[in-house]
Design goal:
alpha+beta; binds adenosine-5'-triphosphate; Rossmann fold; 6-stranded antiparallel β-sheet; 19% strand; 5 helices
């Protein structure tokens, strides 16, 4: 499995559709200061579901949409598509190539798709969760983040280890199951109240 292409349109400084093609192995992105290298990394995190504007180096999520320049008006939407080569079947889906897309409007509404089919963010998270990539995996190490890891307290360090061990997915499922259980308990209490009233 490897990242094959990343297409940006209206995302940060990439107003026009821009496709980046990667090969297996190491890729270096080089360019002058302010040319958009970090924006490429932001796009990767964003398409995998990042929803913290701060992590994307902005003040609000809308800041990911092209804000315009002196020669070009602002755009109303940002779109990023990531194509992953899945010929080794690392992702649990019957496709040798998988595309993940995210589209966002200025209203803040986001739409996600897997291979062109609209889906929930949760579907993307589940698809990527065993692959070692994904928004909540520490696969994107930003400037200054190594310091954060080295100075992490015991709780934070434990969270890093849990992610590396793949516990995160099960923790999320457990939290979801507990929420359902709570709702079920509330319903049960309500039914018992009604039964008491009817006696
Ligand atoms: P450095 O080497 O200095 O770290 P870089 O190549 O990583 O720079 P980026 O931080 O990716 O550069 O890009 C910064 C550029 O992106 C700035 O010129 C900034 O104006 C532009 N930019 C960021 N957000 C937007 C936006 N929403 N609309 C238009 N341009 C944007």
């Amino acid at each position: 499995m490897y990242l094959k292409t990343l297409t940006l349109r209206g995302f940060k400084s990439f107003a026009s559709a821009t496709a980046l093609r990667f090969e297996p192995g190491i890729t270096c992105v080089v360019g002058p200061n302010g040319s958009g290298k970090s924006n490429v990394v932001d796009a990767l995190a964003w398409v995998m579901g990042e929803h913290s504007a701060k992590s994307l180096r902005g003040g609000k999520m809308e800041d990911v949409i092209f804000a315009g320049t002196s020669s070009r008006p602002p755009l109303g939407r940002a779109e990023v598509t990531l194509t992953i080569d899945n010929s080794d079947g690392a992702l649990p889906i019957d496709y040798t190539e998988v595309t993940i897309s995210r589209l966002m409007f200025r209203s803040g509404q986001s739409e996600y798709a897997i291979n062109g089919d609209t889906c929930r963010l949760l579907d993307i998270q589940e698809l990527l969760s065993d692959s070692g990539i994904g928004r909540e995996m520490h696969v994107i190490v930003g400037q200054g983040q190594l310091d954060q890891v080295l100075h992490a307290g015991p709780e934070e360090r434990r969270a890093f280890i849990e992610e590396a061990a793949g516990v995160l997915k099960h923790r999320k499922r457990k939290e979801k199951a507990l929420r359902k259980l709570d709702a079920m308990q509330a319903n049960l209490t309500r039914v018992q109240d009604l039964a008491t009233e009817l006696r």
